Amino acid sequence: MTEITFSQDQKDRMVSKIKAYFDSELNQEIGGFEAEFLMDFFAAEIGPHFYNRGLQDAQQLLTEKMEEVGYVLQELEKPEG
């Protein structure tokens, strides 16, 4: 698996959301460095679980769509004989 990277704008928005969450939900202010460190920790420790779940969901959806394609192809078959 290749490393997942984000643009600086995406990182900035995530850090901003973490800081806002700490402020509004925990009544605690944290700086940008602390928020980015926390984001990196969650990405490394919890991120793979979300990534794998996304892959499983995509695989299930693909399987369902391929079954639908199979049914459509069967409907296109011409009678032989």
TrEMBL record:
InterPro entries: DUF2164 (IPR018680)
Domain of life: Bacteria
Pfam family, one: DUF2164
Protein name (record): DUF2164 domain-containing protein
